[in-house]
Design brief:
This protein has 805 residues and is α+β, with helices and mostly antiparallel strands. The chain is built from 20 helices and 40 strands. The longest helix is centred in the C-terminal third of the chain and has 19 residues. 37% of the residues are buried.
Length: 805
Amino acid sequence: MKVSYQWLKEYLDLSNVTPEALADKMSRTGIEVEDVSIPETGLQKIVVGHTVEVVDHPDSDHLHICQVDIGEEELSQIVCGAPNIAADQKIIVALPGSRITGNVKIKKGKMRGQVSNGMICSLGELGFSEKVVPKKYAEGIYVLSKNAVPGDAVFPYLAMDDAILELSITPNRADALSMRGVAHEVGAIYDQKPVFPSFELTEDETDSVENYIKVAVENSEDALSYNVRIVKNVKVAESPMWLQTKLMNAGIRPLNNVVDITNYILLEYGQPLHAFDYDQLQSKEIIVRHAKDGEALTTLDGEERSLTSEDIVITNGSIPVALAGTMGGLDSEIEEETVTVAIEAAVFEPISIRKTAKRYNLRSEASSRFEKGINPATIVTAGDHAAALIAELTGGTVVAGTASETALEIKNSVVSITLNRINGSLGTSITIEEVMVIFERLGFDVSEKDGLFEVVVPPRRWDIDIEADLVEEIARIFGYDNLPSTLPVSAARPAALDDKQRLIRHTRRFLEGAGLSQAISYVLTTPEKAAQYMMRESEATQLEMPMSEDRSTLRMNLLSGLLDDVSYNKARKNKDVALYEIGRVFYKEESRTLPIEEEHLGGVLTGSLLEKDWKGQPQKVDFFVMKGILEGLLAAYGLTEAITFVSDNKREGMHPGRTAALYLGEKEIGFAGQIHPLAAKAYELDETYAFELNVQAIVEAEKEPTIYEAIPKFPGMTRDIALLVDETITNQQLVDLIYKKGGKYLINVRLFDIYQGQNIEDGKKSMAYTLSYLNPTATMVEEEVSKAFDKVTNALVEEYRVVVR
């Protein structure tokens, strides 16, 4: 929003406030001023000229020799190539030695043999953007008003001596998207009440709007208020200088007196208006409705739009003549031949306007205001003011009455707040009197009783609805710089990790020590990947408005994301990857609105954990490498119930012969194994191993207390045993039996060899174990170890028919 400092001075006394001071004060009270610029800065010696005589250049088909009055005794000769130069014009003259935009210096010279004492300028050469130069002067020089005095500096005539404040308006402060709104804000800052000039609306009582138009709104939610004024006998022409300069300084291109007045009202009130050529409507009826799918409308930019049923349109009863709140139709555009104008002042449904503007890339000053909100109390007033100005500047006559369809209830809102709430929120000790003064400066009616304020907020501040909004207003006007910068006071609590945090931190340290790196995958994935490797049955949780199909569903496993990460690495020639992730998965239950969140641990290994070096080749990871890492991790948790690995040949996506389910006692808490070759192929991976555990179940499980013991000072003893067993018997079965029969001094059983092949009959395998014995309180003797060892041997022979080799 570009705000004219001189325009603000029409409403407030700013004689003792510089533009820079005003910008600083506004930025400190909540509305940021991005820049303060004065258009004349850097320009020198540019004056008003009067073309007394203009003749064609004898040696050129487009140049003209001009005799120009620049306020001196003698006329000054200037050669000009503008196509619209003519005698008896007030023009812009850059004198010899002057500076125009771009720091270009103008010198006295000759053009095709003719002396040229300076330059006749266009607005572009004074720094005006092409987007704001009036269409009439886009290809030539700008002609000033007849009352301009030759020799005077040109800047006051073009309002280039004004200071332009560029405001950065946040969506919640759309009330400041108008000069009146900014005036109220500045008035509150400087404790002034803005005074807005009144206008006189003279109507032709012999003629009624009912003779011209009738309006209807099919759905009141689309347009809570829709109003039309008629001005007849208008003469469309160029706008006066004061109106053009105000629009140009605000970044709007002047077109003609009718359209320029609607834009002027937009800037003053923040109320978008639209002017129709009444005769081109070819109807005495206006109906506001939703467009039909495929319905066509050619907008003012000349583009034919194929509309959808989501668009709100203004129709003449049968066909669309404008896109509501966005852009008018080309057929009803104001032109030089227009004699009767229909002025629309309305409020439209914000979300629909935003979607329409976005759909057709028609973002405008009007649509921006409809999106963010407008002051409902000034809709009719703005339309009346526009009608009065059009009548004044075009010589037209306002027809009596307004065609209106409205369901809008205009009322003040009442918000209550206590003094304790204010001071408690701001950390201040503001008094009741100070609060009352602040509300009065803001223009709010307020009453107070026993520290409770009843604040009546006018419709122009539709952003204020709850007590927190009032706290913010008080803080702004009181001054953020005046708020105490004290730290909040709260009860001190000792910092400590809970059980879950300690377990997760330990898990990270252990896995990173084992050679894995932490990964963080996307929580959102595809429905197919979300359903892979699930540890329980559940429906997927879908987003209602996903940004993409690849990120539409909350994950129900960690492995699919980790496999994507490994695939990403492998595609970049990194074949040795070991990743883990601790994160949440989401399960859906019909009885719950929100999904169940469960903490999981997942890991993926492929390639090797070690790099090739001088000592030899690295060993590829396999199931047992991964199982060893998990056993070490789970052992470190100190769980009271035993962890067992049970063969699992039915888990989808996993190798049927190399996968195990993990049980904590009788409860399944995860799985580990090789990714099925077909699934690995889909991810473009080689042989890959993975695991996923329910961390939540481990956190909730009972654990043994950590007990530190001294290193035993007595030596232990070992025994080795080699067994010939059926190949169907598992290592876990043998180990469990050895521990069961090994006696109280058996502390460890380690498998050190497995063999099948030559000299071993079919269906058999050889397994060799080392049994370690230790008595922490005395030196062990051969007899007690041999006795315990014999019990183990006898039990193995009896239970599994083993052959001791």
